[in-house]
């Protein structure tokens, strides 16, 4: 059985217009509201993952991506969001569930969620009958969705759309809690993704093994625990600034580092196992 047929999602082995010209993608991206780590955060995760790939995995990835880096393709999942051909991926960036529930306690979204998205992408990459074009597409998406899974508010509550409906002031300007976590805390430091990747928390080899020897469900429930903490420390229309950034930016850096390490482990398991 092919894993990517299980969820009743549309899979087209011979998709046309699979990769849009870069200029079109860039134009489209300017008209789409960024809704996860933003460009910098996703690229950090991609860069960290690249640094932990085995040689065999790196060769397989390079072959599929034709030399493009994981950091470069990490934003692809957002760049295609204005394209109707990929509309069915909209719900794959997140999962909404009550903070006191475990995944599976309630019926999952029939259109899919970020947990199903990761399983689906892995299934395509492991399928010997999948086309090279499809594998390249779902590799790009996998890099993005693993990043999304590690943004805590992508495992947030449905009633406030993962914090999008919790209005706040960020350094005096109108914003919302989700946007603060997506990009505004990161952008506030005005660091390139390479600079931020070089300033992540340092883990021992033993700690790294503990981090990567986890399941996708573990990642989800870990983000859920952080989301519960984030929700508990905020009120509607609250004014946020330096104090909030000092309190939570270390957690942001941990999430980016863990996301990169786990993405590398996942890719190594797919391509070098």
CATH-level-4 superfamily name: P1 Nuclease
- Total domain count: 1
CATH-defined topology = P1 Nuclease
The rounded Rg comes to 18 Å
SSE arrangement, N to C: HHHHHHHEEHHHHEH
CATH classification class: Mainly Alpha
The number of distinct helices, counting runs of at least 4 residues, comes to 12
Number of strands: 3
Average pLDDT, rounded to a whole number, is 88
Unreliable spans: 1-35
Commentary on this structure:
Strands 2-1-3 form a three-stranded mixed beta sheet. It has one domain (3-271): P1 Nuclease. The longest helix is centred in the C-terminal third of the chain and has 30 residues, at 242-271. The protein is mostly helical and 273 residues long. The protein has helices at residues 22-29, 38-50, 55-65, 70-73, 76-79, 114-126, 132-149, 177-187, 193-197, 205-212, 216-232, 242-271, and strands at residues 167-170, 173-176, 238-240. Residues 1-35 have low confidence and may be disordered.
Short descriptors:
52% helix, 3 strands, mainly alpha
């Amino acid at each position: 059985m092919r894993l990517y047929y299980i969820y009743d999602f549309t899979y087209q082995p011979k998709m046309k217009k699979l990769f849009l010209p870069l200029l079109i993608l860039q134009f489209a991206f300017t008209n789409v509201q960024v809704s996860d780590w933003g460009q910098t955060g996703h690229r950090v995760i991609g860069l960290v993952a690249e640094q932990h790939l085995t040689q065999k995995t790196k060769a397989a990835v390079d072959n599929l991506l034709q030399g493009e880096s994981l950091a470069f393709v990490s934003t692809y999942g957002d760049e295609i969001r204005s394209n109707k051909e990929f509309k069915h991926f909209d719900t794959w960036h997140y999962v909404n569930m009550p903070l006191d529930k475990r995944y599976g306690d309630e019926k999952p979204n029939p259109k899919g969620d970020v947990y199903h998205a990761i399983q689906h992408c892995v299934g395509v990459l492991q399928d010997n009958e999948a086309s090279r074009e499809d594998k390249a597409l779902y590799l790009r998406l996998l890099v993005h969705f693993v990043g999304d899974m590690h943004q805590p508010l992508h495992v947030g509550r449905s009633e406030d759309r993962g914090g999008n409906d919790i209005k706040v002031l960020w350094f005096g300007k109108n914003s919302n809690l989700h946007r603060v976590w997506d990009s505004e805390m990161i952008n506030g430091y005005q660091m390139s993704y390479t600079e931020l990747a070089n300033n992540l928390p340092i883990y021992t080899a033993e700690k790294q093994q503990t981090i990567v020897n986890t399941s996708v469900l573990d990642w989800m429930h870990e983000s859920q625990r952080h989301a519960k903490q984030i929700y508990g420390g905020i009120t509607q229309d609250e004014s946020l600034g330096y104090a909030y950034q000092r309190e939570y930016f270390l957690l942001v850096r941990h999430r980016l580092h863990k996301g990169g390490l786990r993405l590398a482990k996942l890719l190594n398991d797919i391509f070098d196992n």
